């Protein structure tokens, strides 16, 4: 039911204009990609990062092999302006180095081992081949999978990565990812998304949100950057304000054991033309519950579990 209302809204919102002018014209790859957002999307969070070290080629190889809809990644800039695939602001947790990622050149980062930590933390999934895994550049990921994959790219920590949007758009254009329908750009920072849009307004954008209790009044939920009101207070106009520039939303589901969104939130977003992708869902029962609630896609470290449910 909820997905049906999304179909109606999105079909009208995204394709009605084109249909009246070129009734029989074939869809472009970008239009096809947007149309496919009407279906449930399996999004491999940092690759199949429950099975292999996050953001490494091994994690992306596995997710790609399993046929996920999107490879999710966080893009950041090195000290010498190279785009790398890395989540944290610091390299400490997932490498054998220490310090802020932006303080290192690509050559220095390439000397790190970003795989062994996974073997130590996950004895049951340890694999000798993960040892010595190198930090990935976005170029390397694109060269490996090219147009044979779709990429769900986050502009991570935009304040710490000045120039990130420019570098990202340049790379997306170089690899002809946008017009061929291979990329979504996501961010928690609305300004970062608007910067991307100003550079290339064809790039489909996803507004990330993170809902948690207000510090002043824990009974009220608020959004981290204030991009929307909390889910209990959000209106059609608030969703429309997002759909003015974005093609979807990515949200958390649980904060400190408390569910922060419900089926009504998803339905209302859908009615305003916004599919809702929920992060980061790793347990099968939670996946099933969100699918029942009408979620339009899930970010997961275990795409194998989700694919089993979807098929
Ligand atoms: O991008 C969706 C989700 O990945 C956001 O959280 O911290 O894992 O980047 P994070
Ligand atoms: Ca992310």
TrEMBL record:
GO terms for molecular function: phosphoric diester hydrolase activity. One of its GO terms (biological process) is lipid metabolic process. The keyword Hydrolase does not apply. Pfam families: GDPD (PF03009). It comes from the Bacteria. Residues 1-25 form the signal peptide. SUPFAM superfamilies: PLC-like phosphodiesterases. Residues 40-310 form the GP-PDE domain. Keywords: Signal. InterPro entries: GP_PDE_dom, PLC-like_Pdiesterase_TIM-brl. This is Glycerophosphodiester phosphodiesterase. It comes from Vreelandella titanicae.
């Amino acid at each position: 039911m909820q997905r049906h209302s999304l179909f109606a809204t999105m079909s009208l919102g995204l394709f009605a204009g084109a249909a009246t002018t070129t009734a029989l014209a074939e869809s472009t790859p970008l239009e096809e990609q947007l149309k496919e957002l009407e279906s449930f999307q399996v999004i491999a969070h940092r690759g199949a990062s429950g099975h292999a070290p996050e953001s490494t080629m091994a994690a992306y190889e596995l997710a790609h092999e399993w046929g996920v809809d999107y490879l999710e990644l966080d893009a950041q800039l090195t000290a010498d302006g190279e785009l790398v695939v890395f989540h944290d602001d610091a390299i400490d947790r997932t490498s054998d180095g220490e310090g802020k990622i932006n303080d290192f050149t690509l050559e220095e980062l390439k000397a790190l081992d970003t795989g062994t930590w996974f073997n130590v933390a996950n004895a049951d999934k340890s694999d000798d081949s993960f040892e010595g895994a190198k930090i990935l550049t976005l170029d390397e990921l694109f060269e490996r999978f090219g147009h044979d994959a779709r990429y769900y790219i986050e502009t991570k920590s935009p304040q710490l990565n000045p120039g990130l949007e420019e570098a990202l758009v340049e790379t997306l254009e170089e690899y002809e990812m946008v017009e061929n329908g291979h990329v979504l750009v996501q961010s928690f920072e609305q300004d970062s998304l608007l910067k991307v849009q100003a550079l290339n307004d064809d790039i489909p954008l996803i507004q990330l949100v993170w809902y948690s209790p207000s510090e002043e009044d824990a009974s009220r939920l608020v959004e981290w950057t204030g991009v929307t009101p909390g889910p209990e207070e959000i209106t059609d106009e608030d969703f429309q304000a997002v759909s003015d520039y974005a093609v979807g939303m990515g949200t958390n589901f649980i904060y400190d054991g408390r569910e922060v969104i419900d089926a009504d939130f998803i339905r209302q977003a859908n009615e305003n033309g916004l599919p809702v992708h929920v992060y980061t869902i790793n347990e099968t029962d939670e996946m099933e519950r969100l699918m029942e609630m009408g979620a339009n896609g899930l970010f997961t470290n275990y795409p194998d579990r989700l694919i089993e449910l979807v098929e």
